[in-house]
Amino acid sequence: MRRNSRITARGDPPAAQLASFIAKYDPAIGRLVRAARAKLRKRMPGAIELVYDNYNALAIGFGPTERASEAVVSLAVYPRWVNLYFLHGAALPDAGKLLRGSGHRGRYIVLERADDLDRPAVRALLDAAIRDSSVALEVTPRGYTVIKSVSARQRPRRMREAR
User: Fold this and answer.
1) Nearest by Cα to 135 from 42, 40, 65, 60
2) What is the C-alpha separation between 116 and 103, in angstroms, rounded?
3) What angle do CA 54, 33, 19 make, to 5 degrees?
4) Are 95 and 124 in contact (CB under 8 A)?
5) Which of 82, 83, 72, 6 is nearest to 44 (CA)?
6) CA 10 – CA 33 distance, rounded (Å)
7) How far apart are the first and last CA of the chain?
């Protein structure tokens, strides 16, 4: 059996479970997540997707192993926006001054559309993050998806309707 077709503890294939997590969000956010995820999968075909459906957000990490600390980037999905989070972004050369945040390690970019990933400055950041990864990403093998955790309690995933 291929690793990316493993059945999760919930009984669903990881891809189906991830699709159900994304479906909790407003359609526009869902489209953005699916398109950005597809672009990142194409850019890093050997990456393992680590999925955390946490209390505050849905996080989809992309890395060379199943260790979250070795992830290169992640998509952090919130009800109103999606961040492209660089786990070691503070150390990246950011000529375009795109990275936000003041954390010790991480930095992020707010994605307005999936095509933001094609911008030269964002591509340069992705290239640098992949190059500087502590463990090399495989180029040829296909990555797979692992559901790492699902929080029992979660904040609402859709924007509240205007009152």
Assistant:
1) 65
2) 23
3) 65
4) yes
5) 72
6) 23
7) 50
pLDDT value at position 16?
92
Asked whether the beta carbons of 112 and 33 are under 8 A apart, the reply is: no
Q: What is the dihedral of CA 87, 116, 136, 76, to 10 degrees?
A: 40
CB burial class (10 A; 0-12, 13-18, 19+) of residue 34? middle
Q: Among residues 47, 34, 58, 62, which one has the least CA distance to residue 3?
A: 47
pTM for the structure as a whole: 0.86
What does the alpha-carbon distance between residue 130 and residue 13 come to, in Å, rounded to a whole number?
Answer: 28
C-alpha 93/C-alpha 80 separation (Å) is 28
d(CA 74, CA 126): 11
- Indicate if the pLDDT at residue 5 is higher than 50: no
Q: Are the beta carbons of 19 and 145 closer than 8 angstroms? A: no
Report pLDDT digits (tens) over 57-78: 999 999 998 999 899 999 999 9
Locus of tokens 């992020």: 108
Q: What was the pLDDT predicted at 150?
A: 79
138-159: string of b/e by CB count within 10 Å (b at 16+)?
eeeeebbbbbeebeeeeeebee
